[in-house]
Specification:
This protein is mainly α and about 110 residues long. The protein is about 45% helix and about 0% strand. It is elongated and about 80 Å long.
């Protein structure tokens, strides 16, 4: 657009991110901002359905972990067998949550 003083003004009709040389790791910062914008661009203020799927998956998996199991005990080897008592409902909830998460990421 030509201004009254003879100068020209350019404008964009899309969002633009300017990362200056004053910041360290400009590429990393720009990539992170782009990821955030891309994740929420079309949501129009609505919650991301992946958040609910993640919560469902976390709750289902938490239900499978015995409450009396100390997972931070470094003396127990990773390949040690641990008896886990789970109800069929807990297993089905975990399978359903995994399926929903996998379907949304396909």
């Amino acid at each position: 657009m030509r201004n009254d003083n003879g100068s020209t003004t350019f404008s964009l009709i899309l969002p633009t991110l300017l990362v200056t040389g004053y910041l360290q790791d400009q590429d990393k910062i720009a990539q992170r901002v782009a990821e955030i914008l891309n994740a929420h661009w079309d949501s129009h203020g609505q919650p991301d359905p992946r958040d609910a799927q993640t919560a469902q998956l976390a709750a289902a998996l938490r239900g499978l972990v015995p409450t009396n199991l100390c997972t931070s005990n470094a003396n127990v080897a990773d390949d040690a067998l641990v008896p886990i008592d789970a109800t069929m409902g807990e297993v089905r909830a975990a399978v359903a949550a995994l399926a929903a998460t996998e379907a949304s990421n396909a």
